[in-house]
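Quick note —
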Amino acid sequence: MRGSIPSPGPATAKYGGNTPCLEVAFADERIIFDLGTGVRELGAEWPGPSDVHVFVSHYHYDHLQGLPFFGPIFDPRNRFHFRGPTRNNRTLKDVVSGQMQQPFFPVTAEMVFRAQVDYQPFSAGDRLRLGEGVVSAIEAHHPGGNLTYRVDYRGASVVYATDTEHGTERDAQLVEFSRGADLLIYDAMYTEDEYMGRIGSPKIGWGHSTWEAGVRLANEAQVGTLALFHHDPTRTDEQLDELMRTVKRHRKATIAAREGLTVRL
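Predicted structure written out below.
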């Protein structure tokens, strides 16, 4: 999945050009994390009437811009429970309503959403039990704030750590939060050389991390598989293939996230 902006085209067809959206499913529960342009593709494969939980990490465009084009939200047979943090006194509902207003969008959410939708706050430190599963969150290091999520179910676990920057006191908290996870999905937008400015302009303070930091985190937290996520939109499939060959020399149990990828835990 790409970060910052969609990047469709022949050079990104293998890993995909949509911005972040992923689904976690267990037992009778379905969870969607983030509503980037990838959620339109998810909606195109919708199985039928569903009761789904949606967790939003933060409110930058690349994590919300797919919602107005998510087909199931217009079907009254579906029910969605939206959860996300309150930022600057604006709730998730405020943000969703705000982005679907003229002149930014021709119709409002209240006008066109036909599914049953409710909005609930979710903050760092919160835990939500869904059947035998638990969703929890901590704060990440990202401009404007961002939540990192973890799902635990019957001994299996996945951590969704997108849009986070290494190098602060939050690193130790993320290690403990990720400890023993079967799958760690981690923001690896840059290489260390790109991040430090040895190639191009420095990216320090931009709120994103590197594959090198991801490897260190995965090893220290003793996670199973590391999935590199939030790929730089300018990085081609060929360049990602080359990068992954380098990464695997440092940590074999690493994959690159791509559209349509299914990981069973």
